[in-house]
Write a structure and sequence with these properties.
Elements: E1 3-7, H1 11-22, E2 26-31, H2 41-47, H3 64-73, H4 75-83, E3 87-90, E4 110-113, H5 116-129, E5 133-136, E6 140-144, E7 166-169, E8 172-175, E9 178-181, H6 189-195, E10 210-218, E11 232-235, E12 238-244, E13 249-257, H7 261-266, H8 270-278, H9 309-312, E14 342-350
Parallel strand pairs: 1-2, 1-9, 2-5
Antiparallel strand pairs: 3-4, 6-7, 7-8, 10-13, 10-14, 11-12, 12-13
Helix pairs in contact: 1-5, 3-4, 4-5
Bound molecules: flavin-adenine dinucleotide (FAD).
Residues 7-13, 30-33, 52-53, 55, 58, 60-63, 139-140, 182-184, 212, 349, 351 line the site of flavin-adenine dinucleotide.
Biased composition (Basic residues): 292-304, 311-331
Region (Disordered): 149-168, 288-351
Signal peptide: 1-21
Length: 351
């Protein structure tokens, strides 16, 4: 049994820790962000302060291949996520009038859909249940290596590569037989390796060229509007993604070109965002519901409009939440079903 340190308690780090714990290792996960997730799912969404993951409240959908692997190797994780409210969906699922029926073999395109923060919360619970130790508020600052020194000069025959024996952290050194870096795309691993005399890894970095601008909504009864449009609809240079999630929530995500700075700036404003979504045939039903359902289903009291945090939070360049600003809806009904454009929270991020 090895003593293993995993850096980063997000989806990558937690699943790595689960797999290593299942192999019988003693695993400690170090996470820079200090706050544990609240226990209530809605509080996880609204209150979990997680600056280490700017995309925490953006539309996420795990790939179907991930579910296949998770079911084979991490069934307890799948169970926790399902218990937390994640819904099973098939990305090829027929939409009325859009596609034919599913074939039996299409089950391989199933995945689990939930707000990303809930998936991570469930993964945390699964890891803790598997005996993984999660230490929050600890920042990894570098790697430990015998001698602690930098190797200078060109590689020479007989010279051994530095051996990593642990990590340097904000609270002191921590020994480990193995260190796994899961600190995400801003990982400092290349510079940590250079600090102990190892040439940094060869990295390939490419710009994806698109920007997400998403809002989440909540249906009062968990059903989706009858009028529908494809999972990913296209309209000129804009795309619209709609993803079902946990507890009757779903997200609409506008996708635009990253180099269209003017559009990107405009879409951070709720009115412009909604106007753009309405350009997609069938999408308006997803924005608004009958007035009598404009209550928070979970609290039973009217939703109080908030100030527009887009304006309040100008200093956050990549990540904005547009809280519950609501517009009066005049008699628009979606199949007489309970629809509430509740709980809208939006974020923009350059991807
Ligand atoms: C806009 C956007 C949309 C995305 N959509 C999807 C999607 O639909 N489906 C999908 O599967 N994936 C999606 N992803 C990717 C996904 O969000 C994860 O980022 C990715 O899976 C990598 O996860 P991770 O755990 O490796 O890293 P991250 O999620 O980046 O987490 C890294 C963790 O390490 C911690 N950390 C960082 N530095 C240190 C340190 N020095 N010491 C200790 N802790 C540290 C951070 O606080 C954080 O918790 C999307 C990403 C973005 C940006």
């Amino acid at each position: 049994m090895a003593s293993i340190v995993v850096l980063g308690a997000a989806l990558g780090g937690l699943q790595t820790a689960l797999l290593l714990a299942a192999d019988g290792h003693q695993v400690t996960v170090l996470e820079r962000d200090p706050h544990p997730a609240p226990s209530d799912p809605d509080a996880v969404w609204s209150h979990w302060h997680r600056p280490g993951i700017p995309q925490l409240r953006l539309t996420h959908l795990p790939l179907a291949r991930w579910l296949q692997l998770a079911e084979a190797h991490l069934p307890a994780l799948v169970a926790q996520m399902t218990e937390a409210g994640a819904v099973r969906m098939n990305v090829l699922a027929p939409e009325p009038g859009l596609r034919g029926g599913l074939l039996a073999a299409d089950a391989r395109f199933d995945t689990l859909a939930a707000r990303r923060c809930l998936l991570e919360h469930a993964a945390t619970r699964a890891a803790v249940a598997a005996g993984v130790r999660i230490e929050r508020g600890i920042v990894c600052r570098g790697l430990r290596s015998p001698g602690g020194g930098r190797i200078t000069g060109p590689p020479a025959p007989g010279r051994r590569a530095p051996h990593v024996t642990g990590v340097e952290t904000s609270t002191g050194p921590l020994e480990a037989d193995l260190v796994v870096d899961c600190t995400g795309r801003r990982s400092l691993l290349p510079s940590w390796l250079r600090d102990i005399g190892v040439p940094g890894p060869v990295e390939e970095v490419g710009r994806r060229g698109f920007t997400y601008c998403c809002r989440y909504f909540r249906s009062a009864d968990g059903a989706l509007p009858a009028r529908t449009f494809p999972l990913l609809a296209e309209h000129g240079s804009l795309g619209l993604l709609r993803i079902r999630a946990d507890h009757g929530t779903y997200s609409l995500g506008l996708i635009s070109r990253s180099d269209d700075h003017e559009l990107r700036r405009l879409l951070r404003h709720e009115r412009a965002w909604s106007a753009a979504v309405r350009r997609f045939p069938g999408a308006d039903a997803w924005l608004e519901g009958p007035a009598h359902h404009r209550r928070r289903p979970d609290h039973g009291r009217p939703h109080r409009p908030q100030a527009d945090p887009v304006r309040r939070r100008r200093r956050t360049p990549l990540c904005h939440r547009a809280g519950g600003r609501r517009r009066r809806v005049g008699g628009h009904r979606a199949d007489h079903r309970a629809w509430a454009g509740d709980e809208p929270a939006a974020q923009c991020a350059a991807a």
